[in-house]
Amino acid sequence: MGCWGITAFESDAGLDAISLIRKHLPEQGDVELRQMLAWLKADSWNAPPEVSEGVSHTSPMAVAELIVKFQEKDFSALDGIKGDKKFSSLSSFTASKESLQWVREYLSETLFYSRKCAKEQEKSGVLWGGWFQERDWKHWQAHMEKLIGRMDELLTREGETVALWTGSICQKAEPGKIAGKKEGEERENPHRSEEESMTFFERELKKNVWNGSELFRTKVCRELLLWKADGSDPCQNQLSDRHGCGSL
Prior knowledge:
By secondary structure, the chain is mostly helical. The protein has a 3-stranded mixed β-sheet with strand order 1-2-3. Helix 3 packs across helix 4 and helix 4 packs antiparallel against helix 5. The longest helix has 26 residues.
């Protein structure tokens, strides 16, 4: 196992744990923290080592960092590989207080024993807990303390179950559709009028373009050039054909 930084996401152990969790994710749906921990504990390669070993990078540490990334809606390091299951596609990610407490205690005890081992190692001339530089040893301890603090914050929330992520917060829904619908399920939002279901550009086109606004038409064409990359605009062909934008 190797590492190139102080975080679990900068280690083979951490990335292996995240890869295993990703493989078990549902395409869409809900996942619980206790499920993730069970997947890791059942796998001989990713099972958490004994806390008494004071290992610097572990699968529970990666899970703690994963929780923080969900809290901060940072999927840049999670969903970057095309074709993989996406953490951001989950409908929800929840954790029982019991599971959070387990992660918290694992991190705390690992830090305790790591410091204890470091003191013993100093007697034989091994400095900084085995890290190459003193600053890395200090930064790793601070990182662990920060993760423990984040777990403590979650444990102060009301109820026995903590919502770590709700996909509908930032998942993009198509106009007139409810976010989080299952694949192949057409769930029209009954509370949206035809006007509300239009995209911004569709509404502005209705108000301006059909009234002959050349300035607005030019602006829309320019914006659609930016939209072309992901093909997200359902009416770009209409604009190309009817308003002289050319082939976008």
